[in-house]
Amino acid sequence: MFVTPAQIAELQKGQIDTCTRFRTLSSAPPEKFADLNIAAAKALLEESSESTQSYLGRQGCEGTDVVERRFRATRRSKKLVSYNRNLYSIASAAGAEIAKIVEVRIAESNRKVAEMVDFAAKNAPAGSEAAVSLIKNVVAASNTAYDTFSKAAKQAVSVCRVEYRRRDPSSLNAGNVTTEAVP
Question: pTM for the complete prediction?
Answer without folding.
Answer: 0.62
